[in-house]
Amino acid sequence: MKDRLLSVLKLFLAVLLLPLVIGVTISFWENLGLVKSAVASAFGWGVVSYLMLHILLYQPAQIYDTGKKITEKAIGFLSPMFKVAGFCIPIFTIFSFIAYFLATMVWKNHNLFPYFSFLAAFTLTMHIVMTANALKGKQAGWLKENYFFPMFLIYIVNILIVAGAFTLLSADFSILACWRRMTDVAGMITTASFRQLFVMEGR
Fold first, then answer.
1. Tens digits of per-residue pLDDT, 131-189?
2. pLDDT above 90 coverage of the chain, percent
């Protein structure tokens, strides 16, 4: 009985996170649209390119596992948090940030941002998709609560990490604006859902 109640609680928390998932997706994409069009386009192609690779050709499980192990070893001093860090931190996307920063120091007169945007999107999509696969392989729980709740949370954290990186790299992108828009959208969805469920028309 206790396990059933815990499952219901986790599923309830996952439902509460869903508006934030929608909100962070909308806000990130809207803010990305404020950056030069080539950057937003490159990011979109990065997402599509990985999905095509994953579906049609190859699922880079070994690459993902390597990145997960690197993350766990890098912050092993935070035990027991390191056990989930591999899922929460998109290490290859962070590496792409570092690579871009170093590349701009070498090729100062070249616009490398669209290439970085593509690489960041490609690696971020890989991390999210492979993390979803890994969580599916674990015990999902009676109501799949052990999948939906952590997956939603990981997705939000990952998008905010990338939003933070874009804020550092582009004056046109703002993680604060992204955060405000995310909470606004989530609030509107939650309010509309509450009214739909609990407020009867005509009363």
1. 998 888 666 555 566 788 888 999 999 999 999 999 988 888 999 999 999 999 999 99
2. 44
3-state secondary structure the chain: CHHHHHHHHHHHHHHHHHHHHHHHHHHHHHHHCCCCHHHHHHHHHHHHHHHHHHHHHCCCHHHHHHHHHHHHHHCHHHCCCHHHHHHHCCHHHHHHHHHHHHHHHHCCCCCCHHHHHHHHHHHHHHHHHHHHHHHHHCCCCCCCHHHHHHHHHHHHHHHHHHHHHHHHHCCCCCHHHHHHHHHHHHHHHHHHHHHHHHCCCCC
The structure's pTM equals 0.86
Dihedral through CA 44, CA 152, CA 90, CA 138, nearest 10? -120
- 2-9 LR contacts (CB < 8 Å, sep 24+): 3/142, 4/142, 7/141, 7/142, 7/143, 7/145, 8/143, 8/145
